[in-house]
Amino acid sequence: MSNEVRKNKKLKLVVAGTVAVVVIGLSGAGVYAMTVKNQVAKWDNKIYQGVKVNDVDLSGKTKEEAVKLLEDSFSNTIKQKKLVVKALDQNFELDYSNLNPQFNVQEMAQKALEEGKKLSLFQKNNIIKNGTNKNLPLEFKYDDSKIKAFEQQIESKINKDPIDAKISINGGKINITDDQIGRKVNAEELDKLIKTNINGKIEQQAVVEAPIQEAKPKYQKAELEKIDGKISTFSTSFATSNEGRSANVTLASKFINAKLLMPGDTFSYNEALGERTIARGYKDAAIFVGDKVEQGIGGGICQVSTTLYRAAMRAGIRSTERYNHSMPTSYSPVGLDATVYWGSLDYKFKNTYNFPVYIESYTSNKNVYVNFYGSASGMGGKTYELFADTLAKYEPTISKVDDSSLMEGQTQWDKQPVTGYKVKSYLVTYQDGKEIARENIATDNYQKVNGVMKVGTKKATPPPAAPPAPPATTQNPPATQTSTPPTTPPATNQ
Question: Which CA distances in Å does 426 have to 340, 429, 459?
Answer without folding.
Answer: 21, 10, 55
